[in-house]
Predict the structure.
Amino acid sequence: MSIDAKLALDAFKIDEESHIQIDQTRCKERCQTRYCLYVCPAQVYTLGQEGEILIRYEGCLECGACTIACDTTLAWNYPRGGFGVQYRFG
Ligand code: SF4
């Protein structure tokens, strides 16, 4: 089974409030590598047209890889109780 197929089995209870924040100004000024674009298995981070990091927090797998990769500006917390990924389906 492919990773994409396995990911499709996960279920998400989506909070209206993001559990991931980035200071866009600090990110642009201090980070040239943009590791977050490459380490996230769920492709939560993408690059916007103005060079900003876009965040689709709804698909976060709560693996923590981005918190290790980013030492500049990322503020990441687990989703509030009852929200987030549910692995029991995959
Ligand atoms: Fe992506 Fe994992 Fe970070 Fe969630 S915790 S945004 S899945 S790298």
Remarks:
- The chain has a mean pLDDT of 93.
- The chain is about 25% helix and 20% strand.
- Strands lie at 11-13, 20-22, 45-47, 53-55, 74-76, 84-86.
